[in-house]
Each structure stands twice: as structure tokens, then as C-alpha cells.
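Re: that backbone. C-alpha cells:
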């Protein structure tokens, strides 16, 4: 059984978010940290600190912003990231890049 962290939305907690378990993603200690701060405040603090993975190595392909987007919390994701996602979905053909050296005048030997 997996549980979702109510702070960072990490979906693979092996234990319920309670009883002094600590989220390996955002480091929230349930029953301690969330006794002093709301999940909302803890999430803001985690994101404000750069939304870093806390314990050991993150899972392969882990991405804090995708984790929030997948949980329906894209309002927390920095605009530059959501812009990038939107562009990669809407841009069809890559823009043709013409290198300067392909310009015959620049390549011409004087
Ligand atoms: Zn967490």
C-alpha cells in the first residue's frame, strides 16, 4: 500500500503520513512538523527552498514540478517550467537554424 504525502504530493510513501514518519521527498515529519505548520505552509517552505529531494537519492526520473502537476497543483509550479511544458506540446516542427557558415558570402574565400 502506498500513500501520498499531503505536503509535496510524493505518491509512493510506504507508510501513512502520520506517527512521526518522515517524507523522504520533502522531509516533513508527520505529527511533528505538521503540528506546528499547516500542510499548505510546509509545501510553501519546501518549494521556497527549491523543492529539493530530501533523503538519499530521488527515484529515477523524479521531478518535483511534475509531481505537483500530476497531483493537480500546477499553481505551485514556477511559470518558466509550465511555459516549457506548453511549448514542447504546441510547437510542431523545430525552427530551421541556418548556420552562419552556410552563408556563401561568409564562406567565400577572398
Ligand atoms: Zn513530502
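Recovered sequence:
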Amino acid at each position: 500500500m502506498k500513500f501520498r504525502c499531503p505536503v509535496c504530493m510524493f505518491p509512493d510513501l510506504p507508510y501513512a503520513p502520520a506517527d512521526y514518519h518522515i517524507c523522504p521527498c520533502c522531509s516533513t515529519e508527520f505529527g511533528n512538523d505538521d503540528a506546528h505548520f499547516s500542510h499548505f505552509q510546509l509545501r510553501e517552505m519546501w518549494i521556497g527552498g527549491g523543492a529539493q529531494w530530501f533523503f538519499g537519492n530521488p527515484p529515477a526520473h523524479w521531478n518535483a514540478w511534475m509531481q505537483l502537476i500530476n497531483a493537480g497543483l500546477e499553481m505551485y509550479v514556477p511559470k518558466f517550467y509550465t511555459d516549457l511544458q506548453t511549448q514542447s506540446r504546441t510547437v510542431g516542427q523545430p525552427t530551421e537554424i541556418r548556420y552562419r557558415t552556410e552563408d556563401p558570402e561568409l564562406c567565400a574565400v577572398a
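The radius of gyration is 22 Å. The chain is about 35% helix and 0% strand.
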